[in-house]
Design goal:
This protein is α/β, with parallel strands linked by helices. The chain is about 40% helix and about 15% strand. It has a six-stranded parallel sheet. The longest helix is centred in the first third of the chain and has 16 residues. The chain is globular and about 40 Å long.
């Protein structure tokens, strides 16, 4: 799919980017990268999740990369008309709380177990969701910040276990692409 179709879909809506519950580095990096991509195209979005971020190294990402993320307990004003993009997960998965908003888009690298209709769906069998988000910058020639690039590189590195687990050509190519732009 063309990532600019996602931009058009979300324009003029209140948007959330929801990670899977208990997000890991790939989920957080993907959400942060997507938030930056959308911002570059004039579309604001808030990152959210349910559960806890238990590992210190994962929580440290918030400070290191300047990521603002809301837990489910901190979201009081989401409505059924607000748009949600799920990243690194899909609606109806056991690891994704069904928030009140409308899941209009999904970006994921896991198999689909329960079909769901989305206005925008980008599900690819690659090693990391971060690689998919990094491809959005490259495909559309969208500028990326050094922090967003570093976060995505970290997400790719962590979800592929240093390029030995589930790694694909897209993961390698996108790591090489964003590595030069990362802080």
């Amino acid at each position: 799919m063309n990532p600019l179709e996602l931009v058009d879909l979300l324009r003029n809506h209140k948007n959330y980017i929801q990670t899977h519950n208990f997000p890991d580095p790939d989920a957080i990096a993907s959400a942060f990268g997507l938030q930056y991509f959308l911002k570059q195209h004039g579309v604001p979005a808030q990152i959210c999740y349910d559960g806890k971020v238990e590992k210190f190294s994962t929580r440290k990402m918030f400070d290191v990369f300047g990521i603002e993320i809301l837990s489910a307990d901190e979201i009081s004003d989401m409505t059924a008309t607000d748009y949600i993009v799920t990243v690194d997960s899909q609606k109806y998965n056991a690891n994704l709380t069904d928030f009140v908003g409308n899941e209009v888009a999904c970006i994921d690298h896991h198999p689909t177990y329960t079909e769901c209709s989305y206005a925008y769906k980008d599900v690819r069998m690659v090693g990391s969701c971060s690689a998919i988000i990094a491809s959005y910058f490259k495909e559309t020639d969208t500028p990326i910040s050094d922090r967003a690039a570093a976060a995505l590189a970290y997400g790719i590195k962590m979800d592929t276990a240093d390029f030995i687990r589930g790694v694909t050509e897209l993961d390698i190519d996108m790591f090489a692409y964003i590595y030069k732009k990362a802080d």
